[in-house]
Structures are given as C-alpha cells and as structure tokens.
Write a structure and sequence with these properties.
Blueprint: E1 2-9, E2 16-23, E3 31-34, H1 42-47, H2 59-71, E4 77-80, H3 83-92, E5 107-110, H4 118-121, H5 128-145
Parallel strand pairs: 1-4, 4-5
Antiparallel strand pairs: 1-2, 2-3
Length: about 150
C-alpha cells in the first residue's frame, strides 16, 4: 500500500521532530509520532512546536513504533514531497547498533508536486500528520485527473 509521508525537523538537515504516514486506503489507520526537540531553531519554535498536538516519546520508541506500523504491510511504498522526509523515515529503520528494524522491502517515492503547498492545502501547516493528509489529498486528486 502507498503511505503519504511528512516529517518535521529542526531546520534543514536538523534532527527529526515528528513524522506521519497517512495510508492511501480510506479508513486505514495512520501513523503519527514525535520526539523531544530540546533546542529548536527560532522558526521551528514558532511554527512547528506549538502544532505538534502529541506527546513526544524517545527516538528509540519512535523507531519501534514506526517499524511495527510498517511491518503489517509486506510492500509499503512511502511517498513524500521532500527528500529530507525520506531520509528521516529511512533513518528510523536503523538502530544505533546497526540493525535493520523491519524485514520486508520498503520503497520510497519522491512525488511530483508542482503547485503543492502545505501552507495552502494543510489544515494545520507544519504539523506532520496534517501535512501528510494534504499530500495524500493532492496526489490522489492528481492521479484521478491524469487518468
């Protein structure tokens, strides 16, 4: 199944703050998690942190929860609008001691997102879950209109 991915992080190249996966299938459960961000940039402090709407957990707990969520699907495809979102998702699947957390294949896709803007399309911009929902809506509508 395809899952629409969004991540919030502490500035470009910064540490992961939150990540969401919204499945393509209507009614299927989504994934949303966050970790502590002890020293956010001023922009992140103003625009991301107030919108988390979830209690942060440890990075290791987030890794296991993310891997457990994906383990139910034998062929997950994670679709993102930004390359760094893919980087953070892939990093979640590797432990500090170099183990891979899931056995199944995971594919990543960088979506063509001309005219996509979370600022305009997300109900809560800079909240990873809402931004992933907006990406799903945009990509699904685009697939329907291009058929």
């Amino acid at each position: 199944m395809r899952y629409y991915l969004d991540a919030e992080f502490n500035g470009f190249g910064g540490a992961l703050i939150s990540i969401a996966l919204v499945p393509e299938a209507e009614g299927a459960a989504s994934f949303y998690g966050a970790v502590e961000c002890p020293d956010p940039t001023s922009w992140v402090a103003a625009h991301v942190m107030p919108k988390l709407d979830i209690e942060p957990i440890s990075y290791a707990e987030l890794q296991w929860a993310f891997a457990d969520y994906l383990a139910a699907d034998p062929e997950p495809v994670l679709v993102a609008d930004w390359p760094e979102d893919i980087v953070h998702a892939a990093r979640l699947l590797v432990t500090d001691d170099g183990r891979r957390l899931i056995i199944s294949a995971v594919r990543f896709e960088l979506a063509e997102v001309v005219n996509f803007s979370t600022a305009e399309l997300s109900h809560v911009p800079h909240n990873a879950w809402h931004d992933a929902v907006a990406l799903r809506t945009f990509c699904m509508a685009r697939r329907v209109t291009t058929k």
